[in-house]
User: What shape does this take?
Amino acid sequence: MIIAVFTIVTYLIYLLSKKIYKKISIAAFHPLLLAPILLIVLITITHVSANQYLQGSILLSHMLAPATVAFAVPIYKNLPTIKKYLGTIAVSITIGTLVAMISTFLLSKLIHLSDDFIVSILPRSITTPIAMEVSKEIGGLPALTTVFVIITGIAGGIVGPKVLKWLSIKTPIAKGLALGMGAHGVGTSKALEYGKQESVFSSLAMIFAALITLVWGTLLTTFI
Amino acid sequence: MKIIGVILQIGFLHVFLFLGIVLKHFIPLPIPSSMLGLFLLFVALCCNLIKLEWVEQGAKWLMAELLLFFIPSAVGIVNYQQIFSLQGLGIIFLILISTMIVMGVTALTAEKVSARKKEEGH
Assistant: This one.
């Protein structure tokens, strides 16, 4: 019963946020920012604790798992494209994941983050279920990692299009790979606004980034 | 009618998720069960064990509404008071800068590599 209520309320607020964002397309109104804020306000007014809400909305967060499975469909449908661009995808994403982890590590040191925060923030640029798994393996706190993944998504959705514009990136492959690499699922939903090709490359980047980060994670745990 | 189809297909995708959970018990690597499920579904599609139409609509819906499934965890941020401190501001700044670098480097690499590929092709 509680699950039904929280699921429906969350869905309605999500639809509302998308509508608002369509009308007023400024970063502050991004659905991933606006919907949680509205929900936090709502649960505060109605005296529901964050943990009660998290338990009640479990059906929605659970859907990330079948959604990850679902990415087999675009991979299968775009097999010829993958074969054609495998080299570009592999090189770009290998470099992308390395830059993500190294820059995150160096910047974390710069602002003096504690060790458990650093370990939890390292896998932030990949999709949630896999980031949580990598975080667990390298000794981080998966719940905290989720928070960093979300912030990464919001940040990427906002600055991504600007970075692509500044660097005058033209090709769909570069746009798609950058969005999927930098901001996982959120980047991929942004890529859909550019076009079908961009969204395909973005989903591929997301999957490759997850796989390659898993490899880095395994290496880290084996050698440290 | 279409909604029922989507729901049934999401149910069918759970079969692969479940198989992924089973497979995880036999693989000693830190690969999430959802990723194994992705792999199994991909193999099933390639080997024509299942038809694309059986999962296509459900998969399309799940991927289109991906943002929705992140919302509960985003609300969960309130459990981390540290994010709302000076250090939290630093973390947000870190993530912004790093994400920009990652996207910039990835995009430039992709343009360079694909341009070189094209030249070689000539």
